[in-house]
Amino acid sequence: MSSSSSYRLLVISTAVAPLGSGLGGGVELFVKNAVQSLQQRGHQVTVLAPAGSVLAVGDLIQLPGQWQPTAHTSERSSPIVMPEPSVLAAMMGYAREVQQKFDIILHFCYDWLPFYLTPFFQTPIAHYVSMGSLTDAMDTVISQVAQAHPGTVGVCTQVQAETLPAADRYRPIGSAVDLSLYDYCDRPGTHLAWMGRISPEKGLEDAIAAVAIAQVPLKILGKLENQDYWQHLQATYPDAPIEYLGFLDTAGLQAAIRSCRALLMTPKWVEAFGNVAIEALACGVPVIAYRRGGPTEIVRPGQTGWLVEPDSVEGLVDAIARIDQLDRQACRQQAVTEYSLEALAQRYEQWFHDILSPQP
Ligand code: UDP
Description:
Elements: E1 8-12, H1 26-40, E2 44-50, E3 59-63, H2 87-98, E4 104-107, H3 112-117, E5 125-129, H4 136-148, E6 153-155, H5 158-161, E7 171-172, E8 192-195, H6 204-214, E9 218-221, H7 227-236, E10 242-246, H8 250-257, E11 263-265, H9 275-282, E12 287-290, H10 295-298, E13 305-308, H11 313-320, H12 328-338, H13 341-356
Parallel strand pairs: 1-2, 1-4, 2-3, 4-5, 5-6, 6-7, 8-9, 9-10, 11-12, 12-13
Bound molecules: uridine-5'-diphosphate.
């Protein structure tokens, strides 16, 4: 092992799509921020990712193969799927070959294989689980690893952990934003914002329904993951005051949202974290979110946003009417205090230290 102050770290990215494609959703930001923050602290970081990935930081090794199906489109009883040839199998095979060169492996795949393979590796594996409970097979393998290798399974939030079996066995690691990339805006225009993957579990329909009632314009940003769903929304709300800006990179995203009055978050699932919330806060944009999942641990009601009864469009409309009571400076300040890359890196370092030097 290298000196305790500097780890040699192998990061295994999500296998559902190349980094930078947007198809991975928030997990792409989790990977990027982990790599960047740990590298800034002097750790040596190598990243394995599907071919076609774009990552400006870290030593990137790209491997070919078919992507994994996304877990959020699976049924609870869905079997494990390994497309052939599998990029996940390629990444795990590569990791096994080179593991002796690393102190610890950190992986971000919401997939069965890395969990199953854990006892067959000599180098310890830290598992970052970026979604809540979705399938029986994943619940089983995640909780088995959490029990057999205590302290090695990290999650975004406690509320996410509570969706999984053995909820007290997970370590909340949270998320971060690179604050230098998000500009604070004190003088918003009239728009609201909604951003994320356009897919049913994100509940865009409720945000559109709310702005149709409130007659407030809404900017929509994000990957069009489910075309049928998007067409259905447009057909259902032909006159809603919405504008779709496409999938933007971080620079474009922050430029588009920072002048918005608030971000709407209307998830239908238990959002494990909700990176878009802290990206908005970093720009001084308050967050109006359903009281469900990660946003409940992020939003400070009455100060940096409002938490609304889940699935209540009326509740959203009511919260939109009360945006002026929120404090944009407090939003930026919360991002600075709680979600800096530096703070994230320290949580990772402590996690790795605890895995590598377990208390008896
Ligand atoms: N995002 C982006 N461009 C866009 C809209 C969204 O890069 O135009 C990113 C955003 O930065 C965030 C991710 O999409 O990192 C969504 O992550 P979140 O954790 O909110 O949800 P998930 O997709 O993981 O369910």
